[in-house]
Write a structure and sequence with these properties.
By secondary structure, the chain is an all-beta fold. The chain has no helices and 17 strands.
Length: 134
């Protein structure tokens, strides 16, 4: 059903007490626990994975292949492959994705824009709903 690809390893961390002002480009995996005031961009030359934790805040555009959000983002989000919105995700801005997994409690204040990959097995983008297992 879902094709499983090996995810890039998390090689970089922005710690909880860090505040980064400016644009940040990265390759492989990045975990953000602090504050970013600028754009976060996963380089298109290699697979990229971005994790925005519950304690993190980003003010700027976010672009990567696989994005997991459980914190706050103020700006547009573009997931080239997969976007996971965890229960405490708060996104203010338009969200584009190829595949979306949205948990109960996640909030998006903007448009949800599915993108079509160049090569797809299906005619429509995949939307996967995840229930909160309590």
């Amino acid at each position: 059903m879902f094709k499983s690809k090996k995810q890039p390893a998390i090689k970089s961390l922005i710690a909880p007490d860090c505040v980064l002002e400016g644009h940040f480009n990265f390759a492989d995996g990045l975990r953000v626990d602090g504050v970013i005031k600028g754009n976060l961009t996963g380089l298109p030359s290699a697979p990229s994975m971005l994790v925005i934790s519950e304690s993190a805040s980003v003010v700027g555009a976010v672009v990567a292949d696989h994005i997991i959000i459980n914190g706050q983002v103020q700006g547009p989000v573009q997931a080239r492959t997969l976007l996971e919105l965890q229960p405490k995700a708060r996104v203010t801005g338009d969200v584009s994705y190829q595949t979306l997994e949205m948990h109960r409690g996640a909030v998006v204040d903007g448009r949800l824009i599915p993108t079509i990959a160049e090569v797809r097995d299906q005619d429509k983008p995949t939307l996967k709903l995840a229930a909160n297992n309590r």
